[in-house]
């Protein structure tokens, strides 16, 4: 397995901006991530403190994943959420996408925009042919955002994910490179 490179330039569609996380983002990430809905669908503790955010950012840097904060194009200091690619296997040309959004960012197309920017970049710059997204089955908002960005439901992995000691069924959605689509 070859890992994905960490050098991701800022990506924008003119409305949202995706940029690499920085240690200085810890307070803004904590504000955005300290949300009951984020805690419900992720391993984040509740409350999600600045120290938690700092540890998460440092852990992501060590993991060699592609982790980007989602911000407003005109104000990159306010974090609207996070989007990333992980478990990238450049030999097999695939990766998994993850995303969470702050409460104020939901329902405004921010998730769809962020997902589209990162998947387009992954196909174009990393040469990926497939990107999967795993979403706890009860997270209908997350699944809808992924489908709005072009992900196709592929099935359910039963009792797949443990979040805070509870096993959850997990929906798997997929997107393939445009040249491979039916």
**H/E topology pattern:** EEHHHEEEHEHEE
User: Which term fits the overall shape?
Assistant: globular
- Number of continuous helical runs: 5
Neighbour order of strands in the largest sheet = 1-2-3-4-5-6-8-7
Gyration radius over CA: 15 Å
Structural class: alpha+beta
Kindly state the number of beta strands.
Answer: 8
Q: Quickly name the level 1 CATH class of the domain at 11-130.
A: Alpha Beta
Helical residues, percent = 25-40%
The first-to-last residue Cα distance is 28 Å
Stated plainly, the CATH topology of the domain at 11-130 is called: Aminopeptidase
Task: Enumerate the spans where pLDDT stays under 50 for 5 or more consecutive residues.
Answer: 1-5
- Give the biggest beta sheet: 8 strands, mixed
Which percent range describes the beta-strand content?
35-45%
CATH architecture of the domain at 11-130: 3-Layer(aba) Sandwich
Q: Mean of residue pLDDT?
A: 91
């Amino acid at each position: 397995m070859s890992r994905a490179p960490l050098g991701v330039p800022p990506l924008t569609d003119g409305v949202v901006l995706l940029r690499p996380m920085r240690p200085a983002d810890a307070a803004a990430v904590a504000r955005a991530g300290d949300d009951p809905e984020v805690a419900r669908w992720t391993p984040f503790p509740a409350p999600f403190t600045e120290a938690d955010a700092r540890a998460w950012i440092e852990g992501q840097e060590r993991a060699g994943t592609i982790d980007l904060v989602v911000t407003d194009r005109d104000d990159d200091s306010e974090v609207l959420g996070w989007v990333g690619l992980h478990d990238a296997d450049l030999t097999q040309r695939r990766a998994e996408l993850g995303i969470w959004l702050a409460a104020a960012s939901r329902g405004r197309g921010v998730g769809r925009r962020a997902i589209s920017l990162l998947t387009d970049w992954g196909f174009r710059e990393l040469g990926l042919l497939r990107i999967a997204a795993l979403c706890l089955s009860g997270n209908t908002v997350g699944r809808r955002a992924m489908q709005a960005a072009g992900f196709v439901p592929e099935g359910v992995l039963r009792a797949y994910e443990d979040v805070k000691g509870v096993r959850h069924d997990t929906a798997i959605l997929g997107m393939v490179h445009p040249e491979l689509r039916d």
